[in-house]
Amino acid sequence: MLIALFPGDGIGPEIVAQAKRVLDALAIPGIRYEEGLVGGAAYKAVGHPLPPETLELAKRADAILFGAVGDPDCDSLERHLRPEQAILGLRKELGLFSNLRPAKVFPELADASALKQEVASAIDLLIVRETNGDVYFGEKGMRRTPEGLREGYDIMSYNEEQVRRIAHQGFQAARARRGKLCSVDKANVLETSQLWRDVVIEVSADYPDVALSHMYVDNAAMQLVRNPGQFDVIVTGNLFGDILSDQASMCVGSIGMLASATLNDSNQGLYEPIHGSAPDIAGQGKANPLATVLSAGMMLRYSLNLPEQADRIEAAVAKALADGARSFDLGGTMNTVEMGDAVLAAL
Amino acid sequence: MLIALFPGDGIGPEIVAQAKRVLDALAIPGIRYEEGLVGGAAYKAVGHPLPPETLELAKRADAILFGAVGDPDCDSLERHLRPEQAILGLRKELGLFSNLRPAKVFPELADASALKQEVASAIDLLIVRETNGDVYFGEKGMRRTPEGLREGYDIMSYNEEQVRRIAHQGFQAARARRGKLCSVDKANVLETSQLWRDVVIEVSADYPDVALSHMYVDNAAMQLVRNPGQFDVIVTGNLFGDILSDQASMCVGSIGMLASATLNDSNQGLYEPIHGSAPDIAGQGKANPLATVLSAGMMLRYSLNLPEQADRIEAAVAKALADGARSFDLGGTMNTVEMGDAVLAAL
Ligand SMILES: CC(C)[C@H](C(=O)O)[C@@H](O)C(=O)O
Ligand SMILES: CC(C)[C@H](C(=O)O)[C@@H](O)C(=O)O
User: Fold this and answer.
1) Which of B73, B218, B265, B323 is catalytic?
2) CATH of the domain at A231
3) Among A185, A272, B118, B148, whose CB has the most other CB atoms within 10 angstroms?
4) How many domains does chain B have?
5) Which domain holds residue B21?
6) Looking at the domain assignment, is residue A103 inside a domain?
7) Percent of chain A having pLDDT more than 70?
8) Segment A130-150 mean pLDDT
């Protein structure tokens, strides 16, 4: 089993290093690692955020453990050379369309949320975000209007096949959880959303046991603050999923705790914390590695089919928190390596 | 001075009636009212959500006091006949491009928010949302892919002129407040956002006294939960503004409290609560009319140039709350008319 390690930019190398220590401690037979360059780090080294060797490694690997990309030094580069193109390129080239972002409060951290404790502690939801389509990947560019004005444009679209396959992911996830699926769109304004809604309704015929509801994205953003405990699984498109999952992560308390998986049709997956590269704290040992450790756990569960080992990682993280391990984002003083130590001690 | 009253659907008529009572109590000389049909109510009566007589009245009026549109009976109509087309059509036809959505906690309601009291009570922000462009008004439709699949599409775009005029609104609003402007976009993915950011930076040269920052929309959704007190004025596009302003409203406690104004170049304006038509509680006297009353206040301030009268309305709402007036959404038992009575008593 080959794992590609892509640390990337900013705090990426620090947090991936801790997740690797935890994986090493599990001593899983037959697992091997190869490291690749992505993001601003790759651009600086070889002139491209997703070099061909990296892409080739990603395709060969059973799973990718990803840190983060994003580097302010690269802000003025042409779009196709920016760090973010690494993650967008990997999602596209490997067909990684199903982005799973669970949000659940660890009881020890319920008071870290800006939400009232009784509101925050009810959160146990999963956002299933489509990551191969939408306005992210449509034709886009700069052009001139007939009057000669500069105009930026991006085409948003989904076809029925794209919606159908992510809808199935959403329904299946709901079936494995509490049986509730909320599809989020903006069908009162967007034709893309209207097709989305039509197809989700068609697919629902296969899942009579799942309770399906629909919500406009503006209302969903509101409900995620008002009463996030009402949600089980949310299925939505690439752009709305980007916004709502970051919002949900903060409802949970710290974005430093949230893991994600992005799967393709053959369960090959990319695993990453949902936070970014945090250039402001890079290299200072302040980053919380737990989201990356938990992402490694998701990797064992979804791509390597090692559920017991995944459970061990999750239990170790919970125990480390229960034992009082707190990084800066959680109101504590432990550095990145000490947080790794705490998980290892709990293992 | 002519005010067009457009009650619309659901709770619209009930809440507009209370705002009208408050306006009447001010006995403003020279003000007159004409009522028009919009939304599902207009469709049911005359077959179109924005009939020509309504549009004509809107154009003649100095200001529009709007209730809400949206009616589940109309969900399966063709898009151009749905209730939402009334508000979209008015924004477009009258050039109402600058949507101002203030969010501030009334001290009496700080504990109504799902956010911790210390987080919620720091909120005092204004969202300046562009409402004449973006993916709302681009070409859109259903088509077939080359393989024959159904596909929905919507073109997102902004030109420099559209961005420039809303950027000026944002900077001017910031100058009149605490001097901080945060422009929200998704420039790491969208060309529309890249143009947005470029033009906002160009415009900033005229406002050296305003501190400008930029934030990606996913991060903004997160920060609005984590620490909404950090924001003064947020300027953003139509779609992101839709999502973030609803989210911000819930951070404040109840969407039943938030007013909005949408202005064009000649200060003609449409004034509406930011909540919707709430068909589930329509006709039951459960709706909170305060957002509409406060919208009437904004109307006096921005379109009728009657700041003292606007202050009177705002003070009366604050006093009614201080005196204990609470509708259902605020945890109380007062009905819509009783809430109106409370404001009148406080006037
Ligand atoms: C870095 C950026 C392109 C990316 C996205 O918008 O998808 C990130 O925000 C995410 O959510 O993974
Ligand atoms: C009703 C709908 C079309 C509208 C919008 O999305 O603009 C509403 O949500 C709003 O925010 O005014």
Assistant:
1) B218
2) 3.40.718.10
3) A272
4) 2
5) 1-97+260-347
6) no
7) 100
8) 97
